[in-house]
Specification:
The structure holds 2 protein chains of 2 kinds. Chain A is of the alpha/beta class. Chain A is built from 5 helices and 7 strands, in the order ββαββαβαβαβα. In chain A, strands 1, 2, 3, 4, 5, 6 and 7 form a 7-stranded mixed β-sheet that branches. Chain B has 23 helices and 24 strands. In chain B, helix 18 packs across helix 20. The chains are: A alpha/beta, B alpha+beta. The interface between A and B is large, with 49 and 70 residues.
């Protein structure tokens, strides 16, 4: 789904972004804010991944941002590869008031780097920045971590709306830039690179089945 | 037409268009009609029997009768009777005081149907909390999995807010042998994965156009239907429609989920076909489900519109998918053991600097040497001597890569995983053992001349393995016999079992296992093995886990007391054989361990077409974990090809193991040099 040719013949870019992170960090709320510009204090827990898309104007170009929301609970981890496999980018969301959720982000970084590679653009999003008083993860620490893995870090709040546009459009921008660098050859459209019906179980972070070199 | 807001019978908000309101009205009238039929049964509190009950349930149980009908239908009432009277209270108490899931449950309370009248109240959330805690105490294996919150909440709503009833119906849904497939909510959601791939399989047959379209989009059933099966439609369909599905589900079982899923797909097939990516498919499907107020229509399609769907068929598909899953899980389990081991071991002992890449280099070199020596494409050479390879693997480097050696990529690139088995693992806290098995390529023809009627096509490699309790493990391997296959049976003299090295006295072995292939005929292969287990050993009963190399040969091998069995049947596909002529081979084995533990006999039978004898070598790898050795099975006849009217062999792969010795500090030495260490 890298790009669609519209009937006008103008090529339209499309960027696929997957949201990953521990349960209850606010992935669904971030999406609701980004797509519908609304916020609910109690958002239903996500079981089934959801898909949403929105048009963005980036560098005078129309870009369709396709966002995949995923279930956060550890047990649903085995479903994640379905969504991140052919993603251009991932928003790795943590809750600034909960240290453990940043740990989970570290795991995701490891897994994505191992399973998908270095091409996937990563953005680390510290959600619930409105809860400044309960902050448990310092901005500096998170930013340093992001820098160490070549990701950008964005502070955001689904409640106030802060930072979300920046996170998504910044991420999309980086995807477009890296596409340009690679000569515009994006991943094959919509491919998941596997037979339908086959079962995918991801191992925990840091393992890979046979793949490209790592040593 | 602007939708108007109202509430349904369970306190969910509805935003219905006029048309949808009319549909709901029509369904309500039918429901009232059905209610008259249920009234007489309700009076006597006696359900009708057999087909009559099934039909009534398919047409919907009026909400007012659901509490007692569901209790009875689902087997919940019976379960409740089987337990002590205050079981639910006891479980609530236990869950409140001990459940490790309490935190997760608490987090989800406010996130369970937050817009529902009852579930948004403190009272409703407290009830939900107790039901979930009780369940997590009742089924500690399952504990709490997100999506169970929706089930429990729906049950509370449907069963007069009775916690106890909700609990028991939940139990009868999820317990082993319950209504839903096993392992639906387990770690990894194994059961759900099986259900998803089974559904996929049924879509192939029932909705081929959709299947093809989804295939093109890379749209997996899991993307669309996970919550259908985990939340039983409660988060996707309007509550009143979902509850209609539950009426049938509780009466007929999990196949109803398949029927409803197929009905939803079928009803919206055209819309789905018009979508050109997986995201849009998911979005359309969700919208369509949320608007599915016509419960009568949906259930009609489910039961009359998707054709026959016998339970036997679902069972068959499930068992196939489960088998695939099991292999995958075994692999996963092994990888996890390695990771844990590496993590664990690091805390105990520092390691030498030589890295995993060094191991990789050594193996690569060894493979390169062998390839030059045994170029199986052109000039194969006979080879009889055992082959060893020096391997030194410090754990620190393993940790760096955090990767199992079985996945060293370039080795896999050179040879198939079946040909090369690098099993990595560890035993108890102090030990990491690593076993490398590299395939040798040798030509059958080079060894035996050109006869196609009786050829040595491979060897089976018996394995001697030693494990010592202080944490050091050692594995010695030697080729001990050759097996002849073909139409004419040749008996190869049985060489004595010679371990590659002797375990040093300081590591007196308390576990020795050998398996020696004795004879192989067309359909039978006999192994004579030996299991010795020292008194006081902590190995106990164990279950063998087969590595992925074993697929599709074996699924599991259970050892219990003095008997053991292999389970599994599969297609055996020599490499060049096409699927259409593939023979199905059933592979099974049984045996017993003598009472004093001195000898084990196993008979392995294979049912295959004449002329095809799958040759396998078994390797027992105790390096995995003490107590659950890894058994690898090699195809040793993978190169066999078929010619019309007969059977000829071009090349064979010889699986061979390397003897290595693992010192207490974790360094792995080649077998020979380890002696006396």
């Amino acid at each position: 789904m890298a790009r669609n040719k519209q009937q006008t013949g103008i090529s339209k870019e499309s960027v696929k972004i997957v949201l990953l992170g521990e349960g209850r960090v606010g992935k669904t709320s971030l999406l609701a804010r980004f797509i519908h510009n609304n916020f609910k204090e109690d958002q239903q827990a996500t079981i089934q991944a959801a898909f949403m898309s929105r048009q963005l104007q980036i560098d005078s170009q129309q870009v369709e941002v396709a966002l995949w929301d995923t279930a956060g609970q550890e047990r649903f981890h085995s479903l994640a590869p379905l969504y991140y496999r052919d993603a251009d980018a991932a928003l790795l969301v943590y809750d600034i008031s909960d240290r453990d959720t940043l740990e989970r982000v570290r795991h995701w970084v490891k897994e994505l780097r191992t399973m998908v590679g270095d091409d996937i653009v990563l953005t680390i999003v510290g959600n619930k920045s409105d809860l400044e008083r309960e902050r448990a993860v310092s901005q500096e620490e998170a930013a340093a971590f992001a820098q160490s893995i070549g990701a950008q870090h964005v502070s955001a709040s689904a409640k106030t709306g802060q930072g979300i546009e920046a996170a998504v459009s910044g991420t999309a921008q980086m995807v477009l830039a890296s596409r340009k660098r690679l000569g515009g050859s994006a991943r094959p459209p919509g491919s998941t690179g596997r037979r339908p019906g086959s079962i995918v179980i991801a191992d925990g972070p840091g393992t890979r089945t046979q793949g490209s070199s790592c040593c | 037409m602007a939708p108007t807001t109202s509430r349904d019978v369970y306190g969910f908000e509805l935003n219905c268009t006029d048309e949808q309101s009319n549909i709901r009205q029509r369904c309500a009238e039918k429901q009232a009609h059905q209610a008259a039929k249920w009234a007489k049964y309700s009076e006597k509190k006696q359900l009708p029997k057999g087909d009559k009950l099934k039909k009534l349930c398919r047409k919907g149980i009026p909400p007012q009768y659901r509490p007692w009908v569901w209790m009875s239908l689902s087997g919940a009432a019976e379960k409740q009777r089987e337990h002590m009277a205050n079981y639910y209270d006891a479980m609530v108490h236990m869950g409140e005081s001990t459940s490790e899931f309490a935190h997760q449950i608490d987090l989800d309370l406010a996130r369970t149907f937050p817009a529902n009248d009852y579930m948004s109240t403190e009272e409703g959330q407290a009830a939900l909390r107790r039901v979930l805690l009780a369940f997590s105490a009742h089924q500690t294996q399952v504990g709490y999995c997100q999506s169970m919150n929706y089930l429990a909440a729906m049950l509370l709503l449907a069963l007069d807010r009775s916690e106890e009833k909700a609990f028991w119906v939940l139990v009868s849904l999820i317990d082993d042998g319950g209504i839903l497939y096993q392992g639906m909510y387990s770690q990894n959601l194994v059961g759900a994965h099986v259900e998803m791939s089974s559904l996929q399989e049924l879509v192939v047959a029932k909705l081929p156009r959709l299947h093809q379209h989804f295939g093109k989009l890379g749209c997996d059933m899991t993307i669309i239907a996970t919550d259908w099966f985990l939340c039983l439609f409660s988060t996707s369909l309007p509550a009143e429609t979902a509850m209609r599905c539950w009426d049938a589900l509780l009466s007929e079982g999990a196949k109803v989920l398949y029927r409803v899923a197929l009905a939803l797909l079928k009803t919206h097939e055209e819309v789905l076909l018009a979508q050109d990516n997986a995201g849009y498919v998911l979005r359309e499907m969700k919208l369509a489900c949320a608007a599915m107020h016509d419960r009568d229509a949906l259930l009609k399609v489910a039961f009359d519109g998707v054709g026959s769907l016998p339970m036997a068929r679902i069972r068959k598909v499930r068992s196939e998918k489960q088998a695939v899953m099991d292999v995958e899980l075994a692999r996963r389990g092994r990888n996890k053991a390695v990771r844990d081991a590496v993590r664990d071991s690091d805390r105990h002992a520092p390691f030498a600097a030589e890295g995993l890449s060094s191991l990789a280099d050594r193996i690569k070199n060894a493979v390169a040497v062998k390839e030059s020596r045994y170029n199986f494409n052109s000039q194969p050479t006979a080879r009889t001597d055992p082959y060893t390879i020096p391997v030194i693997i410090p754990r620190s480097s393993c940790r760096y890569h955090d990767t199992s050696v079985s996945q060293v990529p370039f080795v896999s690139a050179l040879l198939t995983p079946r040909d090369i088995n690098l099993g990595a693992g560890m035993a108890c806290s102090r030990m990491i053992a690593l076993l490398a098995v590299v395939a040798l390529f040798a030509s059958a023809q080079a060894q035996t001349g050109t006869s196609t009627q009786s050829q040595v096509i491979n060897r089976l490699v018996p394995v001697t393995a030693r494990i010592v309790n202080n944490g050091a493990g050692a594995i010695g391997v030697t080729p001990a016999s050759s097996i002849v296959s073909g139409r004419k049976l040749l008996q190869i003299p049985q060489p004595a079992l010679v371990p590659v090295y002797n375990a040093p006295a300081t590591y007196s072995p308390d576990f020795v296992k050998t398996i020696v292939p004795v004879t192989q005929q067309k359909n039978t292969m006999a192994f004579l093995g030996q299991i010795k287990q020292a008194p006081g050993s902590d190995l106990g009963d164990y279950t063998f886990i087969f590595g992925e190399e074993a697929q599709p040969f074996l699924k599991s091998l259970a050892v219990s007391g003095t008997t053991f069995t292999f389970l599994g049947a599969s297609a055996i596909l020599p490499q060049d054989q096409t699927a259409t002529t593939a023979p199905n081979s059933v592979f099974s084995a049984s045996g017993f361990v003598s009472a004093d533990g001195s000898a084990t006999t196993a008979i392995v039978s294979t049912k295959t077409p004449v002329g095809v004898v799958p040759n396998v070598a078994l390797k027992f790898d105790y390096s995995q974990t003490v107590g659950s050795p890894l058994v690898s099975v090699y195809y040793t006849d993978r190169k066999a090809t078929f010619a019309t009217g007969g059977y000829s062999t071009t090349t064979s792969n010889l699986a061979q193991s390397f003897g290595i010795y693992i010192a207490p500090d974790g360094t792995v030495y080649p077998g020979q040099t380890a002696t006396g260490k």
